[in-house]
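Quick illustration, no need to memorize.
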Amino acid sequence: MKDKKRPLPPPPAASPFAALAGLVPSTSTAEPAPAPETKAKASRGRVDVLRNTAHRGGKTVTVLKGFVGVDADELKVLAKQWQKRCGAGGTVKDDTIEIQGDHRETLMRLLAEAGFRPVKAGG
């Protein structure tokens, strides 16, 4: 047996939600929320990020140098964190950080997060 198609009822003259308009305040009359104030981070200085293979038996090392106002203890802590994030070894020598492998892009992002201004140097 076939179901007979029934015609749709005519559309209502007014919106069925017109009665609800008085319950909820309109978004057009509400004042916009103030934008949160973002405090600009003070740059901790420029840091050169370069890739080096000289005197290393052909092994690639990413060198970070040019740290200003960073003491040796903080440099060691930063080096340890960045080595873990890159999954590589490394060392701190004469106010420079050396990370084994070519991790320039990752380290540039990590330096920016730490408040430094990373700059690619060399080739």
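The mean pLDDT is 83.
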